Amino acid sequence: MKKTTLIASALFCLVPLAANATPSTQIWIPSTDIQKYKSVHLNVDNYVAAESAPGGSVKAPVFMAGPTVGVLPYEKIQAEVGFDLVKTGSKYYDNSPVYLNAKAGTPEGTLFAGSPALAVGGYNFGTKTDLTDQNVVYGLAAKNVAKLGRFSAGYYMGNKKLLLDENGDKANTGVLLSWDRTISEVSDKLWAAVDYQGGDSSLGALSFGVSWAFAANTSVIFGYDMYNNDKVALGDTFTVQLDINLW
User: Fold this and answer.
1) What are the chain's domains?
2) Can you tell me whether residue 146 is helix, strand or coil?
3) CA distances from 217 to 20, 46, 138, 213 (A)
4) Which of 24, 63, 112, 119 has the fewest CB atoms in 10 Å of its CB?
5) What tens digit of pLDDT does each residue of 29-65 get?
6) What is the largest CA-CA distance in the chain?
7) pLDDT tens digits for 171-228?
């Protein structure tokens, strides 16, 4: 769930975009989940500052919303495409608010008995060169382990001109890790997750949260994001993410 080549004093302008234009996700990172053929999923995500940035300023909230659609009519090979409209409070980015995402993969047990789910995809494909085109691509594997939950691991890379640390050095690669589980001991409507995205750009973060399904097609995630590099991210964020399966 952003950046440009500006560094140093311009880093504050980058921070509002520290949120992913989302394919199907955990809290922050992509998941191996893929929308079923012809299904339409709507996500509405909000990120607000949990603390003041250095100097007492507060980074602007980020709002994003958009659909994800399942596009392949197969059980063993699935794919989804989508886009988000992102509002950051910065006119530099908000003049180019469209970000594209796509993903393809296979469910668990498809390749052989006990095989993990696999997915490859991309997100934050913005429409403004050297400003919003982070162009993050990734690969993921995930496996359910009895009652312990699902464990996922993968790797990503993005635009080395935009994904930078506080010194302007490239920070465009890193690991993707997550755990998630339905807390059925309490309710089948309750889900929890922890995920991690490596790297010292503002994409790098440890996130955790819970979700409650208010209806068969509607759930809300309540989460918290702790960024790897405070000098770039300028403080943690709370996130509330509404997910609706329209059909």
Assistant:
1) 8-245 (2.40.160.40)
2) helix
3) 22, 19, 28, 8
4) 112
5) 999 999 999 999 999 999 999 987 666 666 779 999 9
6) 56
7) 999 999 999 999 999 999 999 999 999 999 989 999 999 999 999 999 999 999 999 9
Among 185, 174, 110, residue whose Cα is nearest residue 142:
110
Cα 105 from Cα 80, distance rounded (Å): 9
CA distance 9 to 63: 24
**Structure-token pair, residue 41:** 């999923």
9 φ, ψ (degrees, to nearest 5): -65, -20
What is the C-alpha separation between 41 and 68, in angstroms, rounded? 5
The answer to whether 82 and 100 are in contact (CB under 8 A) is: yes
Question: Distance (Å, rounded) from C-alpha 204 to C-alpha 124?
Answer: 14
**Are the C-beta atoms of 25 and 180 separated by less than 8 Å?**
no
**What is the pTM (predicted TM-score) of this model?**
0.90
To 10 degrees, the CA torsion angle through 1, 30, 43, 199? -10
For residues 67 and 102, is the Cβ–Cβ distance under 8 A? no
Contact 139, 119 (CB under 8 A): yes
Residue indicated by tokens 């469209």: 98
